[in-house]
Amino acid sequence: MKNSSLFIVLAMSAFIGMTSCGDPGGGSNPPSNELPEWYYTGGELGTSFLTASTCFRQPTPAVDESGMGQAFNQGDQIVEKPFNTMPTGTRSGLGPIYVRSSCQHCHPAYSHGESVPEGTYDAAEMGNGTLLVVYNPTTEAYVPWLAGMPQLFGAEPFKAPLDPDMITVTWKVATDRHGNTFADGERYELRYPEVKIPKEAVYVYNQGYRDPDGLLESETYVVGLENTIGVYGTGLLDAITDEDIIAQYRKEANDKTPDGQPMLRNGLNPAFWNGGFQTTGYYKNDPQWGPKRFTYALTRGPILDAAGANAIWNITNVTRSDRKSHYLDLNGTIYAEYASKDPEVQAGFEKYISQITTEDEHPEWFTDDKQQNVYDYLTSKNLPVEMTDAEYTQVMVWHRGLAVPAARNVNSETVKRGKELFSQIGCDYCHRPTWTTGPDEVRDPNGFFKSQSDMPRYPYQKIWPYTDMVQHKLCMVNDIRTGWCRTTPLWGRGLHRKASGDSYDARLHDTRARNVIEAIMWHGYSEQSDAYYVTEKFYELPKADRDAIVEFINSI
């Protein structure tokens, strides 16, 4: 039963739909009681009804119902524009080294990152949300001399850990067993990125650092790309119960094919499931906070300790009361050691630090030992706070309060046919269409937020994200680090081009797929892929049915 506030929202959305935002019904504009439940992607409390270029920027109905509209708008203003290196004021505190200067650099219009063009990796380009991943090919661990998300900029006098002008991206073409051609003659292309970072682009190498593993000197490290995902709807995923996610793991671990074989060719990632709910190791799921649910690698969760809470700190290196240290490198001290020995950094440090603090507050950064001053500052765990608690609260209200756009063209016969086929060939096994949220008890492992009234909440909502919240392997060329990747939610992704202005859909973890067809066919490139048989079924469909599935995916 829809409440009165939702009825008002629906009435307004119907008017908008008849004017500037398109027709949800795919023909005549139907009454709201004729819309299927999957139209309301985020349920009653999490769906917005705007499909224009600002579609990912809308607050959920829960934001207004909880009286958090002003906090949401203030959070939006903080994340909308670049941070700066000024010592005080809103959006101040950028650096001393950083990945990007704003949220919108990686999330254009709060969508996922745009497709990466061939050539020099332009980290300063607005919309380039594809981050670099540099790791050891033997252990698959991040290299110790860079951060997991390597910084590409420095605030004077500090130098960027990587020189982005020396990084290149080349797009290669892969040919599958079908010769990239459907049986009816329609062709598709499969491309993948090859990224090169010469050792001379690494700041600490130029300062004399030598990698004990020899990867840096021999340039045998692997470089990959990982694109950001849209930040909308994240609060709804946070509201799914731990018990339901664990039940999904248990189901997939036990599911069999008709001939008695495991449904998933690669099983489940043993870091999360080893005959039961795994709670040990690097990716451990803390029983108190439940299974991880955010990032490709499932390293984050719940939302108040997830990607957004982390990124507003480590992407910009803007400190706050619960994060009073700098994000430097995996080791934690390598950049600090070599930057502190740099004569140019030493020469400019006194001017830099005098703008941030005083000698009375931090005498350890104002001694006669310039090298030690720099090192102590970079490695300090008690840095001055640059983002206030009020600002951080507003950012998280905004983050948890972003709505999911309603599905489009839901009464189109082609879209309805595509929805049926999506299920028939098995896409809905990993891209599970729907979940129902629980009581949505807001949790914060950092202890910053202590009241349930601090955040917008989404109790008992039927939502349609099209993800099982579990990792799988697609076994692609130049695959994601470790090969394990969380099933990306499909909701809203068909609006990426409209929202961001991107020329392509930029699907999959590194933007290799420029459209839905390429994304699907990459799922079955390898016979070892968990989605191999489903992709083969898609390949065998006539063109009209393939097109229907594409239209459906773009509509949700």
Structure description:
This protein has helices at residues 4-19, 43-46, 61-65, 69-80, 103-106, 203-206, 215-218, 234-238, 242-254, 307-314, 334-340, 343-356, 370-379, 389-400, 413-424, 496-500, 516-523, 532-540, 543-555; strands spanning 47-48, 97-98, 119-120, 130-135, 153-154, 168-174, 190-196, 222-227, 404-405, 435-436, 462-463, 471-473, 484-486. It has a three-stranded antiparallel β-sheet with strand order 3-6-7. Among the domains are: 4-74, no CATH class; 236-299 and 404-555, no CATH class. The longest helix has 16 residues, at 4-19. 30% of the residues lie in helices and 8% in strands. Helix 11 packs antiparallel against helix 13 and helix 15 (413-424) crosses helix 19. The protein contains 19 helices and 13 strands. It has 556 residues and is of the alpha+beta class. The two termini are 23 Å apart. It is globular and about 75 Å long. Residues 1-23 and 25-30 have low confidence and may be disordered.
**How far apart are the termini?**
23 Å
In terms of quaternary structure, the protein is single chain
Overall residue-averaged pLDDT value: 92
Percentage of helical residues? 25-40%
Which geometry do the CA atoms define? Answer: globular
Report the portion of residues in β strands: 5-15%
Strand order, main sheet: write it out. 3-6-7
Enumerate the spans where pLDDT stays under 50 for 5 or more consecutive residues.
1-23, 25-30
